[in-house]
Amino acid sequence: MTAAFVYEFRMQARKRSMWIANGVIVALLGLLTANLLTDALDEPSAKVAMTSGAFLVNLILPVVYGCFLADRLVRDDKLGVAPILDATPASTAGRLSGKYLGSCAAAAVPLAIIYFGFAVLYAATAGHPVALAWAAALFAVVILPAVLFVGAFALVVPLLIPAPLFRVLFVGYWFWGNSIHPTLMPTLSQSLISPIGPYPLQELFGYGGPGGDVVLAGPVDDATLNFLRPAATAATAWLSIGVLLAVAALVLSAAPALRARTTR
Amino acid sequence: MRPTDLWRYEVRRAGWAALLTPPVATAALLLLALLDGGDDTDRTLLAALEMVLPLAAGVGAASLVGRDPAVELQLTVPTSYRSTLLRRLAVTLGWAALLAVLVAGILLATGGMPQERGALSGQLVWLAPTVWLGGLGFLAGAAFRSPAAAGGLVTTWWIVQQVFPGLLQGRDWSRTLYLFETTRGAVPEGWAANRLTLVATALVLAGLGWALLGRAERLLREEAE
């Protein structure tokens, strides 16, 4: 597992196109949101500034790494190396977990650079070094569960459908399942299994949207699927993280059976 | 080999996987609308026309470069490889366009098309974002030589415009590049300028992609996986 982890991580982290694409996207977003960035740097509370940053990172960037991770597992079959790897003494489960954690870790590196870069900039300009501690906590509790959740689907679903179709459906799901207000249509947003992390953002970090007055999590009047939106408390925030990780593990556990079905 | 043979071959080569993306993505949106009670089918179809079909076409266009196992061979045949890729782009966009004309026809027949759009100008609802995302995908594919990176750029541009419509609509110059001006536009009188700017800039994007593909040595350089 360790070898698979290290190799997968290096393979993905050395992919030049990943860095260029992330760079282009960050430059484009920076250009369009330059005034928002200066507002964020003027924010007096380090906690609010870091939480808003984590919310934005989790809202947009999963689309990027979801697309990148979509070809990781099917690639072995495409290159014809899957049967050779199967013949090695390494266990299937070990190789799969190594590949999963390695590619997720590599996907988290650009996120960490972008997010901690913002944290360092804020800490330096606003004179609040505590921002770095908030950033570390938010990265672990809000950003990483999203990476693991998206990573599991991005690795496994392309075993069933072609990667380009997965990318289209995934970005559609991301908009529908995270950004649409629950009163507009049945959606998973604001629920326990929303990977942008509305429960932890609101309950553990007190985030209330850009104006501070938005309810991100919990039951919504006249909305369907409210059984997935229990009252928002610190306990349900931790439960939400647990549910996201459990769903990721469940999806990943389906991979060996699906691979056996598709490998010819 | 007659030119029609090349076209027929490219359509067959695209395969069911590529042909499935636009209809499946549209069907997913319709299914969601049905779950919601299905009382506003026209609005859903209009959203499919301006948002879903162009996205599928854009990701399809982003997946053209970097998938041929023997580019070296492709570069030695009399038909230039970039012409082959352009033909594949035409097949990808053409299939999405066929479906879009069908959806637009249904909307025109049921009166679901916005009143100020006629049978002809109504086609710009899908044509402008489709060619723009197609052009962006083609250019990104040529630049990155990786469907994952190019697809990531197309999908991110799409979601940014969905989640933050104000970012582009806030300024006069960037409003002309907003993809969803029909369904979510804030300035109705700027619609025609927006559509024409999108089509014109799409041609520039595709042209840049074409120019990049002319440097054959870039295609041979291995993309680190």
From TrEMBL, chain A:
Keywords: Membrane, Transmembrane, Transmembrane helix. The keyword Transmembrane helix applies. The chain crosses the membrane at residues 19-37, 49-70, 100-124, 130-150, 157-176, 235-258. This is ABC transporter permease. It comes from Phytohabitans maris. The lineage of its organism: Bacteria, Bacillati, Actinomycetota, Actinomycetes, Micromonosporales.
Automatic annotation (TrEMBL), chain B:
The keyword Transmembrane applies. It comes from the Bacteria. Keywords: Membrane, Transmembrane, Transmembrane helix. The chain crosses the membrane at residues 14-35, 47-65, 85-112, 124-144, 192-213. This is ABC transporter permease.
